[in-house]
Amino acid sequence: MAIEEKERIIIPDENGEEHLFEVLFTFDVDETGYSYIAVVPAEQKDDEEVEVYAFRYEEKEDEDLSLYAIESDDEWDIVEEMLNTLAEEEELKE
Fold this sequence. Notes:
By secondary structure, the chain is of the alpha+beta class.
C-alpha cells in the first residue's frame, strides 16, 4: 500500500507568524470562476477532530498562491457542500 504524500503550504497569520497546513483538496467552481482550497493545520492532521480552513485562492505566475477570506454565505454554502460530499466519499472507502 502506497502512502500518499499530502501537499503542504505555509500560511502566515495576521501577526506574520507562519503556520504549516496540509491541503485536503482544491476545487474550481465554473459558475463563479473561482478556485477554493481547504486545509488543516499539519499538527492536527491525525487528530480525531480537526479544524478545517477554507479560502478562495488565485495562483500567481511564480507559483505563489494568493488566499482570500470567504465572506459571502453563497461561497460558504458551496465549500460546505464540497466538504460534505468528500466526507461521504471517505466514509464509503472505509
